[in-house]
Every structure is written in C-alpha cells, then in structure tokens.
Amino acid sequence: MQKNGYILGCEETREGVIIDPGDEVNLLLDCVAGHGLTITYILLTHAHVDHISGVGDAKRAVGAPIVLHRDDLFLYERAAQQGVAFGLPAEPQPPVDHFYDGPGPWRFGRYEVHVHHTPGHSPGGVCLQVGREGTAAKALVAGDTLFAGSIGRVDLPGGDYATLMWSIREVLLPFGDDAILYPGHGPATTIGRERLTNPFLRGE
Fold it and tell me: pTM above the 0.70 mark?
C-alpha cells in the first residue's frame, strides 16, 4: 500500500525506534541491523492494518515493547479482520505493551519523542515530534493525518472529517512553517508548503 515505515537512531548510543512497521518490515529490520541499532520501542502512529501488519515480525526480531494510543486498540485487535477487508494478509498482532499516556517523552539515546494526539483519520492517531533532548524539535512523524498535497481519509471506522481538520489546524499547523513532516504515505513535506499548496488547507 506504499506506506512509510521509519527507523530513527541515535548517532551516539546506537539506540533507536521503529515506527509503523508494515509490509516493508524486512527492509526496516535490515536497516536496524545495518546500522547496529538496539531498538528501544516499536511506536505506532495509529492502528490501520497497513501500519501494523509487520509489528509481530518486528517484535520477534528486536523484542522491543509496542506502544499505541489506547483509542486505537479496537483497530489493533482486529488486524486480521482489517486485512480481509483490504485484501491484505494480516495475522493477529502481539499485545500492546504500553499506551501513550500524555506527551511523554519516549526516549532513545539522546533523542526524545513527544506524542501529540491527532484524531480524525482514526480515533487514536498521533503525531510523533522527534528531536534531540532539550531542543524545540521540528521533525514530525505524522502518520496518516496530513500528507503532501492531501489529508488522511476519513471513511474508515472511527474516521471523522471535522475532527481531522481540527487536529491539523490546532495541533500540526502551530508547529510552524519550517517544521518537517514525515507522513505515513508519500514524500516528506513541510507545514509551510502544505499551508500554501494543500487544497484542504486553503485559508488556514
């Protein structure tokens, strides 16, 4: 489904996180091995099947705890049923180890991940703000909330257009135009570029 999974690593400690392992999980694990990373967490931006179908393989390979927003647990626990609906092979995934409880941070090495709840595409969607500890981070792993030129779909269970637009307007846009957005599908972009060119954000 051409979705993006991410590996983030600390240059100093070689600790890292896996974000949203899907059907590209083997590529992610090759990256982990190639850079000699020790994975501290498997972080999920939301629980649609394309973003979680590789969680079990990742967990078996690295043994790190799985972290999800509680409001998406009902989707996570129905991974196999979601797979049937989309025509994708998907097995039941291992139990979630932790739920995001407030903004965090969740740490790997000298880096921090702060969690921002961005419902609308799914009830438990989150944006992960990543940066060096003690800095005003401008890197956002945004899941399926906002894309280059588009927004997340709202026709899946738990989706709501008004809620999604609230999340974009009240949570993402305040990060400022220079914030770099790493979405769940498609290329990276910036808040400023989307404010100017994204048809869903005209007037924002």
Answer: yes
